[in-house]
Specification:
This protein is of the alpha/beta class. It contains six helices and 16 strands. The strands form four sheets. Strands 11-12-10-13-14-15 form a six-stranded mixed sheet, with helices on both faces. It has a five-stranded mixed sheet with strand order 4-2-9-6-7, with no helix packed on it. The C terminus is likely disordered. Bound molecules: guanosine-5'-triphosphate and magnesium ion (MG).
């Protein structure tokens, strides 16, 4: 399956139908009076968050979504029918951002959550509406109100409890495969992982979700390697597991590089609880392990440091229990559900849905002709053959 976490789409709610201008004409009935019905309402654009999706790939193939127009009113006081709504299904953790990506319009974090994203325009009044005692034959009938239209970005921020960070080849995917049923691709070259993978770890009677993201290298915040765009997927995590490759000569430096990138990224990542693990301990002699653990403890202010080997299965339980403490603490503070944008301190300014004011379509057309090219942001996942 392909993974896509950012996509630009165009949405438009239906215009309202026009009201009718009509007069009753029947044999033997004089002055039948106005009987033009009102137009119907246009359809809404509704966005629903569903549990069984974990990519925005469907939006790669269709980027324009328009709800149906309301139908016109007709004579004999017939009101026009309402236009059909259009329903967009997005995965849990999807944020809707303005076209310039500076403001979060909505943050969908729970399956089943539905928002009326754009409201359909109201129908216009037919001339029967304007009948008064002094104007018994009005010819005024209104056109329908236009629907709202907007280019927006959908951005998926996966929902996980623990984010795995580290340099490429630190053994993140190996660890994920060791503690969960996920089967990410593992190989001895950097950037094996090209998009995030999720897995569910079970420890005692509890479970939590782990997210393995592509490795970070020095300068990732400036675009080096795969850049830091995947860090968005761990913004909602409750704790970070920082894996250090123990076979590297300078483990303290490895730690500093990744911390530096987390700090540069912002989004509340720097302040998250962190567990540090010296990975690949199976390939080290005991003295080396002691020495490297001491070096890491000195540099990782306050974070707990554990010896680990994802490949040989050493120290897995200790690390999982160490992760569970902050996860439990965060669940009791923020609830068991996913962290909303505010709680994560992430880029989201507003976590909840704020509808557009009616009739606000001044800058809406600016989006046309913009690059909207979906190829920019997708990552084809041929590599693991799914
Ligand atoms: N000896 C030893 N080798 C390991 C261990 N964990 C991973 N490796 C090896 O390290 C290499 C990289 O492992 P990955 O799990 O792909 O590393 P990663 O951090 O996911 O790397 P990227 O996805 O490229 O960022 C592979 O060759 C693994 O076999 C370990 O605990 N001990
Ligand atoms: Mg990997």
């Amino acid at each position: 399956m392909k993974f896509l976490d950012q996509v630009k789409i165009f949405a438009k709610s239906g215009d309202g139908g026009a009201g009718a201008c009509s007069f009753r004409r029947e044999k033997y009935i004089e002055f039948g009076g106005p009987d033009g019905g009102d137009g119907g309402r246009g359809g809404d654009v509704i966005i629903e968050c569903v549990a069984n999706l974990n990519t925005l790939i469907d939006f790669r193939y269709q980027q324009h979504f328009k709800a149906e127009k309301g139908r016109h009113g007709q004579g004999r006081n017939k009101t026009g029918g309402k236009g059909d709504d259009i329903l967009l299904k997005v995965p849990v953790g999807t944020q809707i951002l303005t076209e310039d990506r500076t403001e979060v319009l909505a943050d969908l974090t729970e399956a089943g959550q539905q928002i009326v994203f754009l409201k359909g325009g109201d129908g216009g009044f037919g001339n029967a509406h304007y009948k008064t005692s002094t104007n018994q034959a009005p010819r005024r009938a209104d056109p329908g109100w236009p629907g709202q239209e907007l280019w927006v970005w959908l951005r998926l921020k996966l929902i996980a409890d623990c984010g795995l960070v580290g340099l490429p080849n630190a053994g993140k995917s190996t660890f994920l495969a060791a503690v969960t049923k996920a089967r990410p691709k593992i190989a001895d070259y950097p950037f094996t992982t090209l998009h995030p993978n999720l897995g569910v770890a079970q420890i005692g009677a509890e479970e939590f979700i782990l997210a393995d993201i592509p490795g970070l290298i020095e300068g990732a915040h400036e675009g080096a390697g795969l850049g830091d765009r995947f860090l968005g997927h761990i913004e909602r995590c409750r704790v970070l597991l920082h894996l250090i490759d123990g076979t590297e000569p300078d483990v303290a430096e490895s730690y500093r590089v990744v911390r530096g990138e987390l700090d540069q990224y912002g989004g509340g990542l720097a302040g998250k609880p962190e567990v540090v693990a010296l990975n690949k301990c199976d390939a080290l002699v005991p003295e080396e392990i002691e020495e490297k653990l001491a070096a890491l403890t000195a540099v990782a202010k306050g974070a707990r440091v554990f010896p680990l080997s994802g490949a040989a299965g050493i120290g897995l339980k200790d690390v999982l229990y160490a992760l569970l403490d902050p996860i439990r603490a965060s669940r009791s503070e923020h609830g068991a559900g996913p962290l909303a944008a505010e709680a994560t301190g992430g880029a989201g300014k507003s976590g909840s849905w704020r509808p557009l004011p009616d009739g606000d379509d001044d800058d809406v057309m600016d989006g046309f002709g913009d690059d909207g090219d979906p190829d920019d942001d997708d990552f084809d996942d041929e590599e693991d053959g799914k």
